UniProtKB/TrEMBL annotation:
PANTHER family reported in the protein's UniProt record: HELIX-TURN-HELIX TRANSCRIPTIONAL REGULATOR, ICLR FAMILY, HTH-TYPE TRANSCRIPTIONAL REPRESSOR ALLR
GO molecular function, one term: DNA binding
Key words of the record: DNA-binding, Transcription, Transcription regulation
InterPro entries: ArsR-like_HTH, GAF-like_dom_sf, HTH_MetabolicPath_Reg, Tscrpt_reg_IclR_C, Tscrpt_reg_IclR_N, WH-like_DNA-bd_sf, WH_DNA-bd_sf
PROSITE patterns (alphabetical): HTH_ICLR, ICLR_ED
Annotated signal sequence range: none
Single Gene Ontology BP annotation: negative regulation of DNA-templated transcription
Gene3D superfamilies, alphabetized: 3.30.450.40, Winged helix-like DNA-binding domain superfamily/Winged helix DNA-binding domain
UniProt name for this protein: IclR family transcriptional regulator
Upper taxonomic lineage: Bacteria, Bacillati, Bacillota, Bacilli, Bacillales
This protein's record includes keyword DNA-binding: yes
Length: 265
């Protein structure tokens, strides 16, 4: 790691009191790929002395923000954080109404369906409807994937001013997840132009080489795109029936838009 989580936190929040910054930095050590960490691993990431680190860990554990995994030396995210996550998710109208439409879409196509929003250059996954067995990493609420590498991300980026889309991607970088990932402005513009032309977005193995996705935007009252809905499956299944899949995805995305108060003129 070239830059500690603590340094990254301080760069984003120079005004934050030191204690708050350190507490947030501890939480940011955990990720989908590293859901459980020892004190030594956390200390290594943050560059804190053992005495300082344990003072923060004990305080966070007492408040329920982290917990010690029984019978091990590992720490995990605590239920207090889940409580706050529930509050955040509960206020999102698109998620409250989205699950029923996702389930309908997934059942119709017998494919895994996803709902996400644009957040700091990423597609932020809000909910899922799963038909086939997938790695649990891909069904974690709050999973983030670079927007330019996903059909949902492109469906949302296409409906903001192009310069703003460039600035979002530039701010967080052209991260690549596969050999098919978009890596230049020219490729991004071509993909977003395709979305505007067809009304839907396609991920052709850009996130995971063997997986294709089709997404359609979701609008709120007034017509602003606030989310996207997608389905994913193998390239063979998607490519063969892409036009019909796109129609079905758009149908259920439009139903969700209607629930959010959008009426197409």
């Amino acid at each position: 790691m070239t830059e500690s989580n603590l340094t990254k936190t301080n760069k984003r929040n120079n005004y934050a009191p030191t204690t708050i910054g350190k507490v947030l930095a501890v939480l940011e050590c955990f990720s989908m790929h590293h859901p459980r960490l020892t004190a030594a691993e956390i200390g290594s990431q943050l560059g804190l002395t053992s005495s300082t680190l344990y003072r923060y860990l004990n305080a966070m554990e007492n408040e329920g923000y982290i917990e010690r995994e029984p019978g091990t030396s590992y720490y995990v995210i605590g239920l207090r954080v889940v409580e706050f996550a529930g509050i955040a998710l509960g206020r999102l109208e698109v998620r409250r109404h989205g699950q029923i439409e996702l389930d309908g879409l997934s059942e119709r196509l017998k494919m895994n369906a996803n709902l996400g929003v644009l957040y700091r250059g990423d597609t932020f996954h809000l909910c899922y409807s799963v038909q086939t067995e997938v790695d649990q990493l891909y069904t974690i609420l709050g999973r983030r994937t670079p927007a330019h590498c996903t059909a949902m991300g492109k469906a949302m980026l296409a409906h903001i001013p192009r310069q703003e889309a460039h600035e979002i991607v530039d701010m967080y970088g052209f991260k690549t997840l596969s050999e098919n990932s978009i890596a230049t402005h020219e490729q991004l513009d071509s993909a977003l132009d395709e979305v505007k032309r067809t009304g839907y977005a396609v991920d052709r193995g850009e996130g995971r080489s063997a997986t294709w996705c089709v997404a359609s935007p979701v609008r709120e009252q007034g017509g602003k795109v606030v989310a996207a809905m997608s389905v994913s499956s193998s390239r063979e299944r998607v490519e063969l029936h892409i036009e019909q899949i796109a129609k079905d995805v758009s149908f259920f995305a439009n139903r969700l838009s209607y629930r959010l108060g959008y009426y197409e003129s």
